[in-house]
């Protein structure tokens, strides 16, 4: 609208002398007119020149008087022809209206105050609210006389303001209508062949691009936590195990680990079982036989659990409840070849059908390490754990006897937290039982020391997150991930 008005006006006029007047005449918004002028100027349709003018604007007080009248008029009107006591007059008016009104009305000699009798009386019959009238004139863009301006300025009812506008003439690229340039070269342009006649908009190489939304790493994935654990394992010569199967059979997750089939962890309250496919397709049959036997009857110096081991139970598919399921597969594979010592690690997701609370989720990440060699002892385990955790800055460790169906002995690992000033549990560990390793076919003198911990725990401590749901799962605030520093130095 503004653009059409400007271009068509210039078609039969030399110039637009004043964009302000132009806008007023055409009933257009001056700000919009200015924007269009800038754009048309940029494309050379017009040449615009700045105009600056001092104008007057009403102050807040000025606006009030323009709307409701000046205090002096209110004061005058509040005095009846027979006069009024000061007290009564004061009651009729706001304090500020009374004060300002008194000063102005007596200056104008509209009223008089008899100090002895304390009576206000009118001195003239008629008054006009000049202040209000002049203020309204100014608001309408008319220029009042210098006397009035001076008076209103002194009373701080108006203030000068610089008004900016433009005078406009035709530019070198003037046309009554803006040409539209094609911005894209489309398939349709090619099909129709009209691209030959199109005028394309030139590239503006200095235009600012859209700010790029880069990818953001979740704290659990950041170098400082997951990557740091991975690096430590690699520096210690550990190989990463393939953890790319969330779905596992009960056999590898529990049975191979000598976890009895009545164990409460194997209940659907603690484990997510799969409906489809509900069971695993294949297991190594001769190994399954040996596992069944060790559960039922024992062997290798063990008495076993003395119960009826059921194949159907072992076949059930589940979401792995720990990455030790991966370790059991890897150790079985290792046992199928001539023995070689190995150091393995994994960091990946596990699932437990637990009630979700501040520190527990139904899925989390486990870090697991194991060393498999001849003649390893509990001393080796403690030594490796010291080495591993001191690389994270935790050299003050304590161990507490614990129980796992697949390790004997088992130890919980505690570290002294300087910040919390207390011992915090940081992991679980042990030496895998012969009932687990020997049915796999590993040589009798081979021991496996292993430990596991959650990735979330150190991350929560590191990032000061006290509710795990703020860190992982559907309630995570994406802002947290975006605002998080790219890197952090030091852990714990
Ligand atoms: N699998 C154990 C857990 O889920 C951790 C662990 C790994 C314990 C290896 C001992 C040896 O807590």
Automatic annotation (TrEMBL):
Q: What sequence ranges are listed for the domain Aminoacyl-transfer RNA synthetases class-II family profile?
A: 221-485
The yes or no answer to whether the keyword Zinc is present is no
Q: Which GO terms describe its molecular function?
A: ATP binding; metal ion binding; phenylalanine-tRNA ligase activity; tRNA binding
> Per the record, what are the reactions this protein catalyses?
tRNA(Phe) + L-phenylalanine + ATP = L-phenylalanyl-tRNA(Phe) + AMP + diphosphate + H(+)
Q: Which InterPro entries match?
A: aa-tRNA-synth_II, aa-tRNA-synth_II/BPL/LPL, Phe-tRNA-synth_IIc_asu, Phenylalanyl-tRNA_Synthase, PheRS_DBD1, PheRS_DBD3
Where on the tree of life does the source sit, at the highest rank? Eukaryota
Q: How does the annotation summarize its subunit structure?
A: Tetramer of two alpha and two beta subunits.
* Protein name per Swiss-Prot or TrEMBL: phenylalanine--tRNA ligase
Query: Which species does the entry assign this protein to?
Result: Punica granatum (Pomegranate)
